[in-house]
Amino acid sequence: MRIVVVGGGPAGIRAVEQLVRAGVTPIWIEEGPDGGGRITQRPPPGFTRDHAALYGADAGRARRLHATLDAMKPRTDWRPDTLVWNIRPQDKVLHTLTNGAAQGEVAYDALILCTGAMDRVLPLPGWTLPGVTTLGGAQVALKSQGVGIGANPVLIGTGPLLWLTALQYAKAGAKPAAVLDTTDFLTKARFGAGMLWNLPTLLRGMGLFAQLKLRGVKLHEDITPLAIEGVDGVTAVHWRDAAWKEHVTPCDAVGMGWGLKPEAQLADLAGVPFDYDATQQNWVPRKDVAGRAPVAGVYLAGDGAGIGGVEVAELAGARAALAALGDAHLPSDMALTQHLDGRLRTERRFRKALEQAFPYPAKLAARMEDSTSVCRCEVITAGELRAAAAADAPEVNRAKAFSRVGMGRCQGRLCGTPAAAVLAKALSVEVPEVGRLRGQPPVKPVPLQQVG
Amino acid sequence: MKKALVIGGGLHGLSTALHLARTPGWQVTLLERRHVGRHSSGVNAGGVRRLGRALPEIALSVIAAEMWQNITALVGDDCGFRATGQVKVAESTADMAKNEARVAQVRALGWSHEEVVDQVEVRRLLPAVSRHVVGAIVTRDDGSADPMRTVMAFRRAAEQAGVTIVEGVAVTGLEATAEGTIRVDTDQGPYEAERVANCAGAWAPDLAALTGETIPCGTKASMMIVTERLPPFVDPTVGATARALSFKQTAAGTVVIGGGHQGRNDKAAETSTVLFGSLAHAARIAAEIFPCVAQARIVRSWTGTEARPPDDMPVIGESRTLPGLFHSFGFSGHGFQLSPAAGAAVAELMARGATNLPVAPFTQDRFTVPA
Ligand SMILES: Cc1cc2nc3c(=O)[nH]c(=O)nc-3n(C[C@H](O)[C@H](O)[C@H](O)COP(=O)(O)OP(=O)(O)OC[C@H]3O[C@@H](n4cnc5c(N)ncnc54)[C@H](O)[C@@H]3O)c2cc1C
Ligand SMILES: Cc1cc2nc3c(=O)[nH]c(=O)nc-3n(C[C@H](O)[C@H](O)[C@H](O)COP(=O)(O)OP(=O)(O)OC[C@H]3O[C@@H](n4cnc5c(N)ncnc54)[C@H](O)[C@@H]3O)c2cc1C
């Protein structure tokens, strides 16, 4: 039985753990040099800050995950620095690229995809300037290299990651010039109640808020970002407060992010159908509660299967592995399965509230000025996209064919969400009606010399 | 008004419908199963090429080239057409000899668009070309256009000429009526017309088979890859004499590489998938001819499907089993360039039963009647 796990984050670690427990030796593939995933991203060897400094309140989790990660490596066929860039589902074969140079093919009987998520962005005038990055990018810079994106960054967006990043920067010695949250207090308060399902996490969120205040970081809610100013780098952010007063905040960098979006291109290439999740405002690959995709032999877990956060990622990773084992008539822990199912149900309710409390500002995206570039790879403006809509592009794939939006190196991973919002508004339809960009291999750029 | 139906909203269907609607007395409806440009016509490499055509195709291709030079007059948009030239490089003296023989043959037939050039000239045309390239055949006023833009321009022109385009309707049957017309069954009810064009691309031979006519035909699933943007280094579209390659840098800077390398096709599902094994081959050839792309990274790949008769030439002609039905398919990976002229020919065949345009070599009889 060849089981392949893609992704060495929390979901992948917990999936592999269950497989090894059942006596299976999976092939375990991770794009990065080490496992840990996003939230518990590991610094390179020789890096000295300890877990507490790096991961704050998540230090305990990070320690546990890293211990399992290290214990599992020798008991699996662990392949770091290896990108899975294509799937041939008919043949059950993955295409891999190791160290950016060595090409490989990996055959599987069962495939567990734990590919994580990436930030969603809201394009603004100036967002393509050097010095502007995603919140995730800002965090990764801090966690894996110990350098921030700037000494006085402005952080814009919404969601727990916004506050968390701000606090991590404050603790690392930077002084965030401002934290600009596009969500108003009422929305957060209204749906915050739903988060009582998970009191500890809710309290942590509130704790974050308090700590930021304590450190004198300026927090503004219900803001509208207007533009990022600068020539060769960032010098200021223009924004409008809830009372429509305009502000200019000087800064040396910008981190921005509005929640997360599943990195589900591999599921797409595997032939898994997608559904629109209106709460998450994301297209999500279809799966059952255990993580089974409707494509035989394909299992999905973690943020790549729909945003659930780290707790869900760990639970769902283990659950998907148990499903794969059970389907292959290998020993699987029934009691654990039941326990996981119960926990996952509770977490889902919490998550729903969380997403509602921090919505993607699709309205702001839809109102973007004609001159703002939506697609930074191909430099396509909102105006060009609207022209495509006028030229009869009732869905995103045709808008892509007409305007080139999403054709560049990111393959629409970044611009897909705002482009859909712009297009839907231009066509006066709801966002799900304009569909989803179909995935095309490679999922990330691959050197020409190395295909095949 | 006489009624005509065109099946298939690719460029050949659109072009046929456009020309027929501009013929007095015809009312044209086009039926497309998905949406206009969904298959080959929307995803091809946009090469507008006479260079290297099979001899029986040259005459039609030359007429098409003239239409491309004036494409705005035909459809009201320039379709992104740029006459940047097509170059087919020679990598050995054997290639050069082959090229000289080829051009002599083309010239003997009275055509002058193909020209042999030496190493000095090929380096002038393609400064980034590998030093081992010894010469080339060029057609200086060939070029390329933007496929999706072309599809939309043809669509708009057809609609302005009075064509009714219906998307999301699949033809499921064809039958002669007692009145001498053709009944066209679809998944949304029947249509009836005096003339019908079968421009259903990869699926056209299946429609012919529904009328009891077997036309030998395989399918092609040509693949393309695209690199990240690179600084501009090549204007013309480039091919090779002895190896399968088509290579073009777009205005955006990306390099589009193809050349007929085949992916996997699933006709029933209307999908085709990239097979990277054979694309690797294309990538290798590209990097050997343009060393500057060796380090480039691929960002995207795709395939498109179309019909391919055994001799790689289209089938254009009236059905032998259902009079009034006209086939136009099987362009075998090079029908983009032919579409303005082929559509004009098919429209004439439908309206008058004859055409002066040079499509006689393409009847399906070539597979059944011994030469
Ligand atoms: C940048 C970023 C920062 C985040 N920070 C926090 C935080 O501080 N706190 C918090 O609660 N949540 C955070 N999240 C959310 C958090 O990522 C998840 O809740 C949790 O990490 C999900 O675990 P996972 O295993 O599903 O995915 P991840 O942790 O993202 O792990 C996925 C792994 O799969 C690998 N991978 C993906 N595609 C391929 C491929 N094609 N080939 C090979 N390997 C591949 C990736 O390299 C990665 O290591 C963050 C998310 C992002 C994107
Ligand atoms: C990757 C690739 C690169 C290419 N590069 C070039 C190039 O550089 N230069 C060049 O000259 N040519 C090129 N070609 C070839 C060119 O694209 C085709 O020859 C041309 O587009 C064929 O057009 P068509 O209208 O016959 O077929 P299509 O565009 O495939 O249209 C057929 C249409 O019929 C519809 N249809 C099918 N069945 C039914 C039914 N039962 N009912 C209703 N509708 C139906 C389909 O949905 C489809 O839209 C390339 C092709 C590919 C795939």
From TrEMBL, chain A:
InterPro entries on file: FAD/NAD-binding_dom, Metab_Enz_Cyan_OpOx_G3PDH, Opine_Oxase_asu/HCN_bsu, SoxA_A3
UniProt domain SoxA A3: residue ranges: 380-450
Keywords (A to Z) from UniProt: Oxidoreductase
Residues in FAD/NAD(P)-binding domain copies: 1-314
The keyword Thylakoid belongs to this UniProt entry's keyword annotation: no
Pfam families: Pyr_redox_2, SO_alpha_A3
Name of this chain's protein: NAD(P)/FAD-dependent oxidoreductase
UniProtKB/TrEMBL annotation, chain B:
InterPro entries: FAD-dep_OxRdtase
Domain FAD dependent oxidoreductase positions: 4-349
Any single Pfam family the record assigns to this protein: DAO
UniProt KW keywords: Oxidoreductase
Name used for this protein in its record: FAD-binding oxidoreductase
Organism, scientific name: Falsiroseomonas oleicola
Lineage: Bacteria, Pseudomonadati, Pseudomonadota, Alphaproteobacteria, Acetobacterales
